[in-house]
Each structure stands twice: as C-alpha cells, then as structure tokens.
Amino acid sequence: MRLLMLGACLLALAAPALTTPALAAPVTVATARGPVTLEAAPAPVAALDFAAMDTLGALGVPVGGVPDSVLVPYLKPEAAGAKPVGTLFEPDLERLSELHPGVIILGSRAAPKYDALKGLAPVLDMTVSPDVLASLHEQLAAYGTLFGKTDAAAKLAAALDARVATVQGLGTGKGKALVILTNGTKMAAYGIGSRFGWLHTVTGLSEAHPGLKTDTHGNAISYEFIAEADPDYIFVIDRGAAIGADGASARQTLDNPLVNATTAARKGQIVYLNAADMYLASGGYRATMEILDELHTALDRK
Questions:
Q1: Are 208 and 229 in contact (CB under 8 A)?
Q2: Where are any strands of DSSP class E within the chain?
C-alpha cells in the first residue's frame, strides 16, 4: 500500500513537467542587417512597417502592434484589433513595452531606431531594398521560416514569379518608360536602381532618360524634361494621394501642354499607379501583386 502511495506522489510531482510546453527551437532569418537568430513563432508581433504588415497578412500571421495611423486601406481591418505602438518613424517605447512583443519588425522609416529597441525584444530590420522583387522573395522565405509557414510562403513566391513573367512578356519590346512621383506640383523622376526602378524590371521597358541618380527623393524634373524624354509610357505615383495631403493631384499636375504632347499621353499610356501600394507599402506582397495587375492592364492593350 505504501509503495502504491509513493508511486502516486511521484507521478503527481512529474505531471507539471509533462504538461509544460517546450520552448520553440531557435531559427535564423535573413534581414537587412544580416542573419538574426531568435525563437520561432514569436508573439505578439509588433510591425512598424506597412510592407511587413502586408506580407505577414498574406501569410496569415496576426500582428499585435501596429503604427498609430494605418494609411493603407486594405491593412486597416487587420490592424483594427492591434495596439498602436508609435509611428512609422518614431516607435513608442512605453507602449511597446506594455505589449511585451515577441519580435519587433521595422522598415526603412523606423530603421534608425533599431538600437533603441533591442532591449525590448528581438528586432528585425526588414527594410525593402531597391531590388523589390528579390527583397520580397527573401522576406517571404524569412517570415515563412520564422512563423512555420514555409509551404504558404513558397506558394506565394511561385504566384509572384508567374505574374512577373506575364507582365515582362507583355512589356518587353514596347518602348521606353519614365517613372514619376508627384508631390503636389513638384515632380521627381526615378530610374533603374532607385526605389521605384523595379518597374522597369517587371515591364521590360527601358529608361526614357538613362543615367538618373538613384537618390531616395529622386531627380527633380520639369515639364520640359518630360517632353524631351518623350516616353512611350509614364508611370505615376501620387505621394499626396498616398498620405492624404492637400494640394494638386498628380492628374492636375501632369495636365500640361508639354506632357500632353508626349507619345505616352497621345496613346493613353500615362498610368496612375495605386499610390498607397507604391509609396507606403512598397515591397509588401499584396501591394506588389496589385501593382503587377495594374501594369498587366496597362500593357495588355490591343
């Protein structure tokens, strides 16, 4: 009888150990600052970057901490139940601390705050490089590994590659393009190697004005510049529309006799791209796929 009681006591003592969940194995993922090793499936996730929110959402990964103001329409429902933890540029340390995040994900705008956040949780700098397509592939693989969604990530990557191939097939050999960002009445052009240069890669269209600088803010241009370049296509990103600013729209700014005389205007090939996708969520999976759809429509004209 005493032996039976002793055995029962030993089992009772062992029970908590049997029911305690094992710690997740560490994984290593690629980031803009090199490989980072952290515990798999961290939660909650704080994402101070719209592209990160976009791609995580495409993979079905919930986000618990988000920017105070989510300006990308399709991300708003996903952010509705999350805690605001600062802006795209200024993370709120106090609110992040209250969230107890398992990981903090930053993009280019908040990247300078990287060191200040390392004491709160593992930090991943997932800044999108100018080679948006390569960067997106890397981030799909990283998030797939980190959150146990490698199969889903591989399917998304395959769908991306298929759509890119279709758009390139439509655009190759159809001339030259100029990529313009408007900010009210101001205009800047972007070439290959810049933040919007990937539009040339996916369309197969050459630069209407080769040799543009790859500065973050682009090359300030005039109506005369556009007329001299005479592009077959003009791809337009309206910064003001993306951030909800007052002032002239891109259509108003480009409604000019010199622009209207270009080949692009005469052929109806001035393409106003989704501003939030291009300017705010650039490099996010869903943003990229939507832009590819818009390019497909623009290039697939009979």
A1: yes
A2: 26-29, 36-39, 45-48, 65-66, 83-84, 103-106, 123-125, 176-183, 186-190, 206-207, 219-220, 233-238, 270-272
pTM beyond 0.85: the answer is: yes
The residues with which 47 forms a beta bridge, in sequence order, are 105
Bridge partner list, 66: 84
Q: By three-state DSSP, how is residue 248 classified?
A: coil
pLDDT above 90: residue 298: yes
Please choose, from the candidates 211, 217, 210, the residue with its C-alpha nearest in 3D space to the C-alpha of residue 196. 217
User: What is the spatial distance between Cα 234 and Cα 256, in angstroms, rounded to a whole number?
Assistant: 14
Distance of CA 16 to CAs 11, 13, 20, Å?
A: 9, 7, 6
Tell me whether strands 206-207 and 176-183 are parallel, antiparallel or unpaired.
Answer: parallel
Per the listing, tokens 């209407």 go with: 208
Identity (one letter) of the amino acid at 210? P
| Single-letter code of the amino acid located at 240 | G
Region of 77 on the Ramachandran plot (φ > 0 left; ψ -120 to 50 alpha; else beta): alpha
**What are the pLDDT digits (tens) for 8-33?**
444 444 444 444 345 568 999 999 99
Neighbours of 216 (CB within 10 A): 9
Helix, strand, or coil (residue 204): coil
- Helix axis angle for 132-146 and 150-171, nearest 10°, is 170
Q: End-to-end distance of the chain based on CA atoms, in angstroms?
A: 91
Q: Are the CB atoms for 91 and 65 separated by under 8 Å?
A: no
Distant-in-sequence, close-in-space partners of 299: CB < 8 Å, separation ≥ 6 = 167, 170, 171, 174, 203
pLDDT-derived band at 5, boundaries 50, 70, 90: very low
Where does the pLDDT of residue 215 fall: very low under 50, low under 70, confident under 90, or very high at 90 and above? confident
